[in-house]
């Protein structure tokens, strides 16, 4: 006995099929069987070969690099960086010049102090010469300048 099923096609016509065609085995069934049986079959095939588990897995990266940190600076940022480097070089040069001046002034201060000591030893206990007083004033002024230069730091952070 053959049963007939009527169904509506896309174009609007009625078509008939036998029940035997409608109950046919679906095409995806063999693929599904392979997917289900594959995990069971693979360990059975590999049972002859011995696999050792990894004793030392590869190390995971410890640092994360951000894309923003690796990008190339644009023209404005490059110009700012260049200006900062030039300022830093100018500050370094100014500080080196300041240190050189302090060194020169300190050497001059030492020379004047030894000269003043020698002149004071030449004079008597009750009298001081005008030259001694002038040297003492110059020593005082020079010492004050050295002190101010030591306080001054060009381009401090």
Structure description:
A hairpin with a 5-residue loop joins β1 (4-8) and β2 (14-18). A two-stranded antiparallel sheet has the order 1-2. It is 58% helix and 6% strand. It is rod-shaped. It has helices spanning 19-22, 29-45, 75-122, 130-151; strands at residues 4-8, 14-18. The chain folds into two domains: 4-44, no CATH class; 75-151, no CATH class. It contains four helices and two strands, in the order ββαααα. With 157 residues, it is mainly α.
Compute the average pLDDT.
75
Main sheet summary: 2 strands, antiparallel
**What's the quaternary structure here?**
single chain
Q: How many H/I helices?
A: 4
Strand content: 5-15%
Based on CA atoms alone, the radius of gyration comes out at 49 Å
Give the distance, in angstroms, between the N- and C-terminal Cα atoms: 101 Å
Roughly how much helix do the residues carry, as a percent range?
55-70%
Number of structural units classed as domains: 2
Q: How are the strands ordered across the major sheet? A: 1-2
């Amino acid at each position: 006995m053959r049963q007939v099923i009527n169904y509506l096609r896309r174009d609007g016509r009625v078509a008939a099929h036998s029940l035997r065609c409608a109950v046919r085995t679906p095409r995806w069934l063999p693929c599904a069987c392979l997917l289900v049986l594959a995990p069971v079959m693979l360990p059975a095939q590999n049972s002859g070969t011995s696999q050792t588990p990894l004793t030392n897995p590869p190390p995971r990266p410890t640092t994360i690099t951000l894309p923003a940190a690796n990008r190339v600076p644009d023209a404005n940022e490059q110009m700012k960086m260049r200006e900062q480097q030039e300022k830093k070089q100018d500050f370094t040069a100014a500080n080196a010049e300041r240190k050189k001046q302090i060194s020169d002034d300190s050497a001059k201060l030492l020379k004047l102090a030894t000269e003043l000591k020698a002149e004071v030893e030449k004079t008597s206990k009750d009298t001081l010469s005008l030259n001694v007083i002038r040297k003492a004033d110059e020593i005082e002024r020079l010492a004050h300048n050295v002190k101010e230069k030591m306080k001054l730091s060009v381009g401090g952070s």
